Amino acid sequence: MPDLHTDVAIVGAGPAGLMLAHLLHAAGIDSVVIDNRSRDDIAATHRAGILEAASVRMLETPGIDSRVHSAGHRHDGIDVRVDGISHPLDFPSLVGESVWLYPQNEAFVDLAAARARTGSPTFYSVTDTRLADIDSTSPSVRAVTEDGEQLSISARYVVGADGSRSPSRASIPEASRQRFFHEYPFAWFGILCQAPPSHEVLIYSRSDRGFALISQRSADVQRMYFQADPGTDPDDWSDDRIWTELQARVAGPDGFELKTGPITDKVVLPFRSAVTEPMQHGSLFLAGDSAHTVPPTGAKGLNLAFADVAVLAPALVAALRDSDAEALARYSTTATKRVWKAQNFSYQMTRMLHTDPTADAFETKRSLGELTSLLDSEHGRRYLAECYTGWPHG
Ligand code: PHB
């Protein structure tokens, strides 16, 4: 039975957990990382594909050897289409920043390889994960390894980076945490297809038929989504029906046409907003989706997770190396400020771009007024560009 002693036990080997492990390792702090998924399963998890410049800078730190520049693509803006009229937002001229199209699973592959090169203990496919003594200064994590061995990790701190259904979060007594939650009356129907890109940048489209997002993956694979009822069965949608619907949602007087091709993946993604506060209890700290989920409309999920870790890593280093726990004590306050900005932006983008089947005609017109107020104003466009490209870390 492996009995491990470490500085930080990290539950969750997704991008948040592994980025944290990397930053700690770079500062000479040991960690043990565990995850109940296999490395292949995590690598196959499709999530949003947009990285803020600050997230890219984190992937550029020595030791990661990320392919973000060779396999990713810089995007200097997005196109917001309203009833078929294009409103390009040029990020460099508005806010002096860009974003990168680099799917989350690629970031994971980079980080998992970096972790493996350090030779530090990392256990995928564990079962029965349990946190103990998080109220004390000697917490521990137990799990069963893939080979059926009991694993016991004692640490000074535990970080729960274990996703939206976080078992770590559940180990915080209910009276000590508050959950803020919002559900939306629609979902996204997402596809992967074999086709060339339809446009240089992502298109976020609002139309009477509902929202559509024309995203990309590579020169010959594209990702697209359209707003659908959460109860939609993907099997009811033939390729022809999907292309007709997507095309109808982006059609306009400019004659814009999507480049189509065989659809290789169909999925319906319900979405919601949730935040747990505080993001800490005793010796346990939450990072990424375990503390907050955002609707995908603003592509903030992974960026928020990296932003948490950008604050948490130096705070853990100061506490462990310099016995200065002040930044750690401020972690939740610092991180949640950015979380709520991202919640607001994701909510606002969602509300402005989707048609709400439960709303009255007044609300539909009002949200159009909100969108055109922003798009018709230089200040408004700059605001959207600032939110999309992201706020400074920490
Ligand atoms: C994606 O490419 O999957 C994607 C991009 C931008 C979003 C959401 C999803 O806002």
Automatic annotation (TrEMBL):
FAD-binding domain ranges (all copies): 6-345
Keywords for the protein's UniProt record, in alphabetical order: Monooxygenase, NAD, Oxidoreductase
Family matches, as Gene3D superfamilies: D-Amino Acid Oxidase, subunit A, domain 2 (3.30.9.10), FAD/NAD(P)-binding domain (3.50.50.60)
Known EC number: 1.14.13.2
GO MF term set: 4-hydroxybenzoate 3-monooxygenase activity; FAD binding
Residue stretches in coiled coil: none
One Pfam family linked to the record: FAD_binding_3
Top-level taxon of origin: Bacteria
Catalytic EC class: oxidoreductase
NCBIfam families recorded: PRK08243.1 (NF006091)
Name of the featured protein: 4-hydroxybenzoate 3-monooxygenase
Species: Brevibacterium casei S18
